């Protein structure tokens, strides 16, 4: 689905921070067919991921001065007034880490975190609304927050964005869906003890035609499976993958694909 604008609070962009920008370009091109177009910046490397010419997200090389920062994906949410959104985040107990910064004539961005420290970014568009495609094969289709206090996080995000929450009907899973205007745009689940001492985080899901095939391909390309291909009743089949540099993301084959 091609997209030209985003509503307040919708996930509109993803950005990969990697310790090996050339390796990451090769990995995601082989896995999803994404092309990477390098953009000139004063220092370091910055590229735009695209699919058949449509921008999907971005990638940058983590500076050597930040060698302790792990490779990671960052999710951007669309806002109409970035200053007002930052003020709401601070008032709700979140933090501002970077910005707001003007990005040429494309828009204005800021990096923030919620009350458990899960980082995300804000994007106030000017001439660049964000990802031009979502919800189709090899593009972003879902975003998910893993945290330890879901009720507190629900209170935080419903103060920051025009979101409501609804309990998912997936059997055996305590799962919350984020909704705006009656449409589910993402989810939230509690970090389980068996996951270990991991921080709260947002994770992108990319839609794929065959979960098992893409998971196997990712392993062949040097990735690790954090969660092997598994079925979610009435939803589809998913896997969680750490790429060759350790950046974590999920893939999902939606069950209704078969009937499209």
UniProtKB/TrEMBL annotation:
Annotated ranges, domain VOC: 10-125, 139-254
UniProt-listed SUPFAM superfamilies: Glyoxalase/Bleomycin resistance protein/Dihydroxybiphenyl dioxygenase
Organism: Shewanella cutis
Descriptive protein name: VOC family protein
Cross-referenced InterPro entries: Anthracycline_SecMetBiosynth (IPR052164), Glyas_Bleomycin-R_OHBP_Dase (IPR029068), VOC_core (IPR037523)
Source organism superkingdom: Bacteria
